[in-house]
């Protein structure tokens, strides 16, 4: 039987914790759509839209912690569940890019 993990299985973290984890070597994984990514993203983030994530898992280093982000935290929670089931150590950025931006952290455009 297919089982989705309870949200409590995926730690939600605040922007300041996400930034600390990134500075310590964690990968920030942005799962938003390309148009959202182009509007602005966390510097140094890796872009893998949620719809393509299952096919791209092999591109991620399983030894690295992941901080998953979307616009508000919902798609990143779905992505976090996929990654958690695949054995990755994952954290969901609570409130997503909206919370990151409101907290005054940098955003870059590519």
Automatic annotation (TrEMBL):
It comes from the Bacteria. SMART domains: RHOD. Residues 1-24 are annotated as: Disordered. Residues 22-109 form the Rhodanese domain. CDD domains: RHOD. This is Rhodanese domain-containing protein. It comes from Dictyobacter halimunensis.
């Amino acid at each position: 039987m297919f089982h989705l993990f309870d949200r409590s299985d995926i730690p939600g973290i605040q922007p300041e914790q996400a930034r600390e984890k990134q500075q310590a070597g964690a990968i920030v994984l942005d799962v938003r759509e390309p148009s959202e990514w182009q509007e602005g993203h966390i510097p140094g983030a890796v872009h893998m839209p949620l719809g393509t994530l299952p096919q791209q898992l092999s591109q991620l280093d399983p030894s690295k912690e992941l901080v998953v982000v979307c616009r508000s935290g919902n798609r990143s929670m779905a992505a976090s569940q996929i990654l958690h089931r695949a054995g990755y150590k994952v954290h969901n950025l609570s409130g997503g890019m909206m919370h990151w931006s409101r907290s005054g952290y940098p955003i870059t455009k590519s």
